[in-house]
Amino acid sequence: MSLLIKAVCLWDIKKIIKNMKDYLLILKTEGNVWTDLSPEQLQKHIENGGAYIGNLIKEGILKNANPIDKGSRLITESNGVLRDGPFNESKEVVAGYFHIVAKDIDEAVAIAKANPIFGDIPTKIEVHPMMAIQPA
User: What is the DSSP letter of 111?
Assistant: First the structure.
């Protein structure tokens, strides 16, 4: 591929990305895929999840993603007093996040719906549009 063609392709990609918006997908599960699935189910989960993530990377959709580890803390403020404590006990836990780009909220929802975790463990995915902050 010539340098000119590479430059034009890069320009086209940047043009397409400018029309995209950032979204934060927050995965909430009941239970823990790492401990609740059998070894065979976990292996299938890893394979399916890896393929899903690989496809998002290949398509230039995924900016970042990570699972969330145990030990999160909740900071609250009431009457000027900050409190630091563990999350309230709940079956639902924040399991991870995906930072993606999509043309609109509907496309972001479709990307979230395609996540194979839905077939493995009870899951909810929150789709949040991220606000662009312009430099001063």
Answer: H
Which amino acid does the sequence have at 117?
Answer: I
Single out the residue of 128, 131, 78, 70 nearest to residue 98, CA to CA: 128
Q: 85-132 pLDDT, tens per residue?
A: 766 666 788 889 999 999 999 999 999 999 999 988 889 999 999 998
Q: Which domains does the chain have, with CATH numbers?
A: 20-129 (3.30.70.1060)
> What is the enclosing helix (H) or strand (E) of 136?
none
Which alpha helices (H) appear in the chain, and where do they start and end? 3-18, 33-36, 39-58, 105-113
Assigned token pair, 95: 């399991």
d(CA 135, CA 114): 34
Matching residue, tokens 């959709």: 61
